[in-house]
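Render DUF3606 domain-containing protein in 3D.
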Amino acid sequence: MPDNKKSVGRDRQRVASEQPHELSYFKRKHKLTDDQARKIIKEAGNSREKANALAETLKAT
């Protein structure tokens, strides 16, 4: 449950790389290493949409 009740729903659009479960989910979803996942999230900011797109382009190459 979010700390701020007014920001409900926004968290699904963001990736929190400092939280182990978020990083673990992201790397398992895209079959990445820890370093690859952190690099992608750092490059994409905390936008889940951008991070997923970058991970897909990485897998394609």
